[in-house]
Amino acid sequence: xxxxxxxxxxxxxxxxxxxxxxxxxxxxxxxxxxxxxxxxxxxxxxxxxxxxxxxxxxxxxxxxxxxxxxxxxxxxxxxxxxxxxxxxxxxxxxxxxxxxxxxxxxxxxxxxxxxxxxxxxxxxxxxxxxxxxxxxxxxxxxxxxxxxxxxxxxxxxxxxxxxxxxxxxxxxxxxxxxxxxxxxxxxxxxxxxxxxxxxxxxxxxxxxxxxxxxxxxxxxxxxxxxxxxxxxxxxxxxxxxxxxxxxxxxxxxxxxxxxxxxxxxxxxxxxxxxxxxxxxxxxxxxxxxxxxxxxxxxxxxxxxxxxxxxxxxxxxxxxxxxxxxxxxxxxxxxxxxx
Length: 338
Prior knowledge:
This protein has two domains: about 50-180, Mog1/PsbP, alpha/beta/alpha sandwich (Protein Transport Mog1p, Chain A, 3-Layer(aba) Sandwich), CATH 3.40.1000.10; about 200-335, 3-Layer(aba) Sandwich (Protein Transport Mog1p, Chain A), CATH 3.40.1000. It has a seven-stranded antiparallel β-sheet, with helices on both faces. It is elongated. The chain has five helices and 14 strands. It has helices at about 1-10, 90-105, 165-170, 245-255, 320-325, and strands at about 50, 60-70, 75-85, 110-115, 125-130, 135-145, 150-160, 200, 215-220, 230-235, 260-270, 275-285, 290-300, 305-315.
C-alpha cells in the first residue's frame, strides 16, 4: 500500500528509545459502570469466510482482519489494514496510493474512483483497478478512510474473469472507523522554506517519536518510498567547535545513530540564504531493507542545534528544489515559513 509506505518511510527520521516499564497501578474498587451501547464493529464479514494470517509484517502496519473465500473455483481475498495517518485525509491517502500503483504495477488500469459516505458521516474514497500477475489479470477494490491519527485501507481482490461478489462488496462498504477527534493541521512557523507544492503532514499524527521535530513534508507525487523533508531542533554543545572539529563530531554522530551509514559528503555550508555558517552532510543509509540517500543541513544558535533533512530512495534522482531548500535553514527563527 502506497500510503502505508509513506508512514514507514517517515518513521525512521527520529528514533525513540525503548520505553521503560511502568509499574502496575494499585487495584481499586470502583462502582460498576452504567450500561452503554457497544461500539459499532469496524467492519463485518460473513462467518463462512476463512480468516488467515497475512504477510504484512512491516513495522507500523496492523492487520485488522484478512480472509479468503472460494467462489466459482477461484480464491478471493479481503483484508483490512491500519496505520498512522500522518494527518492525511482519505482523498490524499488514495491519491498517493494511485501514484504508487501507476509506477509499480504491471499493466495497471484505473477503472473508477468515487467518494464514499461511511458511518457517522465520515468520508471515504473508493478506487477500483486492474493489474496483471504472472498468471492472470486481477481486479482490486480499495476503500480508504482516516479518523483521528489512524488511516485504514480495505482491499477486496478477485480474478478479473469473475463477477464482483455481493457479500464482499457489502463487507468492503461496512468499514466503520472509530469516530475520533480530528487532527489539527500543522501550520506552526518553522525556520525553513520548503519547496513549493510539498505536502506538510502532522508528526503528532504518526506513530513516531516527535520530540524536537518542528515539521515534516512529503513530496506531492507520493510513491512507494516518497521523498521527505523534516526540520528538528535540539540541545547541543558542539556549536563552538572549529569547522573541522564540527564535521568530525557530526560524522561520528551519524554513524553512532545509524550503524552502517556510508558518508558521501561532509563540508561547511552557508545556510540561512547565505547569511550563516553551517554544515552539510550526505550519506547512504539502509533502513527497513530500503537504500536511502540522506542530505542534511545543520546550523547552531548558542546551545541549540537545528537540522533539516532531505531523504529519498537511492533509486530516485535528487530533487534540486529540495536540495536548495536545505540552505534556507536558519537558526533561532531568523527566517520562518508556514
